[in-house]
User: Fold these one by one.
Assistant:
Number 1:
Amino acid sequence: MGMQALNEREGNMSPSTIEPGRGLDVLDELPIHLALARWLVRSRHPFLSRKWAAFFIDEFKSKNAKVTPASEFAEERQVILFAEQGQGIESCVVSLAMLTQAQIPIRATCYRSTMLNWLLQTDQNLDQPYMKLFHRMSQGILSPGSVLVDFKWNLGMLIQIGLSKTTPTVVLEKKQLRNYLMDEESPTGNVMNDGIGRVSLALMRKVQHALGLDYLPSAIQGRIGSAKGIWVLDIGTQPSRIWIETYKSQEKWNCDWEDPQHRTLEILTRSAGLEIAQLNHQFISILESHVKHVNPPHYYTLFAQL
């Protein structure tokens, strides 16, 4: 996520107790899924000499995924935790103002609400639909400044942007950002550059050096501040200057570009040479179900050759 004071975000669950004064009898009165959600959100979970707070639930993607019958299907989720305090974390409490100022990186006590406010910049985005939805979620109103971990719709997508496994490369200056309020549209009003922007040759060379590549990428996928998408190399417009452009379709919330962490270009993937890949058989099945007038014998003969 790029935040200097952001501590480890994930950890394994371990038994913990409900905070003093709450009592286990409160959980006994709730359905099991609500009791589990309340225990996850309202408790601080001690593990590895630190206290962790749950702030997001995501799908669990197993590396050894197997096709199972519908009767045996079970939806698996993983809880993302944030270390607020404990061993290796200073006792002083980090404020939101401290996170937006350039300073020496520290590991200080940082509460879940402060971290999410830093990421989503709620004060500047109260008029956004996802923030209105967020405030209306009654289960999310746990205590002043607290948040619910099981986000849905746009709000969950925004937090996933912050959790994307990217590699920070170049910190840009504000004058090097070309933030356009409108997209490139066709005469009929269709957005022609949805999620796509350009970067200069000089900036792409810095990205190449930061990633240790022996070639110059023609395109990169990543994020900078609240903008995510794909940026393609532009060698014809001021190639010696460092600049990057963002468009309305790329920016997911109003971003405070004063924070150097929000001006850090983070790379998810980059263009590479062509190579042999495996064809997903499940994708073939989907195509088969949508194709009319298919010749079954001929189709299965080709499928067996894959």
Number 2:
Amino acid sequence: MEPVRAARRLREGGPERRALRLLADGCEQSHRDDRYRVEDPDNADLEDVDLWLVGESPEGLPLLLVVAPVGGSTAVLRYFRTLGAGPAHSNARYLGTAVLVEELARRGVVARFARTSSGGGACRARTSTGGAAQTRLTQ
């Protein structure tokens, strides 16, 4: 199993966010699987979002970028993509998911929405109430 060092939260603003967004754009444009390739990514809005998490290799290389706007008790998973290919990148998805859930819980988020690529502006919604969870499709 390829190691992943940690996922960490980035401070708002600053050159590191811009550099990571540009790296993410490049990864989308050159993705080895054309189903996930995006010729002209539209991610400029990411820089204005408060919650950024990055999963890193033991050497400090970025493996995963997670961006989620949070408003009160609601969050939207705006971006969740690996920044390359390989076992370490794949493993980073699992660590990133766990760290994201912990951070959202720490912030008091109980409703999480994830954009889908199924068209029509659909979102998957997951709400938590007293330990029980429900999942539904909203439009």
Number 3:
Amino acid sequence: VVLFHFGISAIPGGFSGVDIFFVISGYLISGSLLDDLERGQFSIVNFYWRRARRILPALVFVMLLTCIAALFILLPSDLREFGLSIIAASTFWSNVFFWKTSSYFSIDAALRPLLHTWSLSVEEQYYIFAPILMFLIYRYIGKRWLTT
């Protein structure tokens, strides 16, 4: 994915690395959740706490640095949309925000310094809803629906 963004086409379709990451991440998180459910050790609070401790420090750091840089780099007319993108990224909604306001492959994508947070938003949305859904299915429908 990084090589793709630098224009190095050593591997065609480098952008599909994000899809591969989503599949692997979903598989590992779902497996971990299922193990916790089967052992009776599932805690939604602990699950969310571990995710927040892992992701939020880096996200906050990147957003602060990006805000400082944006003040010097972006035109005043672009700062309003940038402010909206900060809100979208900090609420894990940037995938929807950028889908509605721009294109990932457009010429002006370089003017959207938080465009890359769309994938983090997708991942976080999965982290928010998957544990709840898996818990409800496990508890009320049965574990066989989660393992087949």
